[in-house]
Amino acid sequence: MGTMSIVAKPIELDADGHLANRNDWNEDLARDIAAQEGITELTPQHWAVINFMRKVFEKEGDAPSIRRLTKESGVDTKTLYQLFPKGPAKRAAKIAGLPKPKGCI
Questions:
Q1: pLDDT, tens only, 53-103
Q2: N vs C: which end of the chain shows fewer Cβ within 10 Å?
Q3: Are 69 and 88 in contact (CB under 8 A)?
Q4: What is the mean pLDDT of residues 10-28?
Q5: Catalytic residue, candidates 9, 79, 104, 105
Q6: The domain that contains 63 carries what CATH number?
Q7: Cα–Cα distance for residue pair 10/74, rounded to 1 Å
């Protein structure tokens, strides 16, 4: 577990580097996390994925897998990898303030 300073306040992280407390999340924090992940701008497609992930997590208690993202978020696999390179489900979950999805390495 560690911490990072984002939006001028320390934020506690879990062992995977995701937010330890989902209540710390807000859109400004998402933008800061994205920037740290090398994503300079969150487009409407990014937000569609982020909001879909948060909605599924709230309902089911786990972030959706990459397969479910491509089937239900309205963003195809190729675009997901362009939006969130090197592991779209894990990166999108991190930016969305959620734990790493169970199926991710």
A1: 999 999 999 999 888 999 999 999 999 999 999 889 999 999 999 998 876
A2: C
A3: yes
A4: 90
A5: 104
A6: 1.10.10.370
A7: 34
Q: Can 104 be counted among the known catalytic residues?
A: yes
Considering the domain boundaries, does residue 101 fall inside one? no
Secondary-structure breakdown of the chain: helix, strand, coil percentages, each rounded to the nearest 5: 50, 10, 40
Beta-carbon neighbour count of residue 28 at 10 Å? 10
Give the mean pLDDT of 1-6.
Answer: 52
Tally the domains of the chain.
1
CA pair distance 48, 14, nearest whole angstrom: 25
In a domain, 103, yes or no: no
Whole-angstrom Cα distance, residue 47 to residue 104?
21
Taking the whole predicted model, whether its pTM rises above 0.90 is answered as no
Task: Answer yes or no: is 75 within a domain.
Answer: yes
Q: What domain range includes position 87?
A: 2-95
